[in-house]
Amino acid sequence: MTTALLGGVALSTGAEAVTKGGKPPRPSHGLKGIGPASTSTTGTEDLMAWGAARLENDRERHAHQLTITPATAAAPKATVEGPSARPLDAAADTSASSTSAGTSTLVLYDTTGPYGYLGELYAMAIANLAGHFGTVTSKPVSAYTAGMVEQYSATIYIGSTYYGGSIPDAVPAAFYQDAMTTGKPINWIGDNVWNMANAVGIENFKKKYGWDPTNSYFETNGSVGRINQVTYKNQSLTRKIPTGYDGGVLHPALSGGGYPQVTQLAQATDAITGNTSPWAIRSANLTYVGEIPFSYVSESDRVIAFEDLLFDALAPATTERHRAFVRLEDISPKSDPTELRTMADYLASQNIPYGINVIPVYADPKGVYNNGKPETVTLAQAPQVVAVLQYMLQHGAVLMNHGYTHQYNNVNNPYTAVTGDDFEFFRAHIDAANNVIYDGPHAEDSPAWAQNRVTSAFAAFAAAGLPKPALWTTPHYAASAADYQVFGQNYTARLERPLYFAGTLSGGTVNPGRYIGQFFPYAVKDVYGTTVLPENIGNYEPLPFNNHPARLPADLIASAKANLAVRDGVASFFYHPYYDVTPLQQTIDGIKALGYTFVGPTDLAK
Known about the structure:
elongated
């Protein structure tokens, strides 16, 4: 086995890719939500055209040729308070943390233009993060009425539609004026801040905020450059956007002497020129982030900076705290009891609490791993496995439910139809380029169908004499909006990287073909109304698979280091017990060396 050094810790480099016993590993179990664009296939296809249209508008604005039609006054619209399933007049407590009781956030988003649906997807991502701090109210910015910012602790506007030309400005003049005059924090992400400056007077804006958005653009010398790094709180965060998809980062024109000082919160670095420019700035009550950071994210991505910046507006008194969590993944009735015991003894020797993600019924309907003979095994039929699970529960483990069978019927979905390999609640296939493509919910998907699988899982745990799990992880992190609602009704929390579907915030028909995937650095109450616990640094994966790169202990530790930028964040990962214990030891030692303290899953919501 070859090793590498990081922080003085000897690390494996993947040479031990075979599992114990010499068997090759099964298909990659490290599927982390959707692809690198973080949106559904439809959204990914639109990102290039969306970015190109924005840059074209920006060039026209730079040339003083962009016509912007101001918003017309509109009648107040109903407020959608997450989760959308609640009545509009119901209190919507989306808090997953007791540290900021009474904190409320207003999230405003764009809905117009050919890519207006992206506004709701990005708004859900922000609403989920804000759900860590308190209650969240989300609505289209066009529904804003005068004085609304005063009703909330802070307001976040995400500008995803670049207004101009054939798309009139949908932001009411009242919001521009209120953002200027309020003392409450305003977080502005992306487009249209120049319209605010024009609306309140450019000189007035400069006198309060110290910079001129009307003279700030996404390109310099006709190019967005290649910004591949954002530095925040001494952490170098990645920014990996493919050529042709990058809409750039706004370069704010700071006003300089005689105007208020602008605090540069994070710096963007261009890999081509080496030049740096502000990625996020703050002056007076306005925090501005120069791009929407929810596409092409990774475990060490610049989105981490945004996730921490929310504390300044919503919980500024938060003290520094860094916790870690590990769970053992894909344990089933066919797991090797000796391998499980090895993991349990190691974790107990280190006094590390952990989660065990258990699939209660193993199914191999085509006999892929049983010489062509179909095989089904329940926990009750695997007493040695159950005995080790009970031993684990007595030595620091918390039982978690990881689906009913973690596969779907007798079809490859997308691999083998075998437990642990395949999706259970979503359809998927592998395309000609070896990518896993998400195809949507099953034809029979419904709340009743999902509930039946959950009920069957509970029965299988009970039949084996095991306690009822209170925590859930969706197999391969993919399910429908209806399924997520069912999980929330049966478990106190989910620990995963969920999908969020268009239509959820608006209260309209949910579109199963348009969604965004997200992972979190802290516990949140999401737009489905469920507490979601973090899994944000991935898993040990010694070999690349389906265009997902290998992730070795050094990669997990590097991601944990990047997440130190979150002042009260978590480094959460998972590990498959069929691998040797050594990479797990290396990962835990490396994360501990960074100053993290390992805690159990139920502690993550505190």
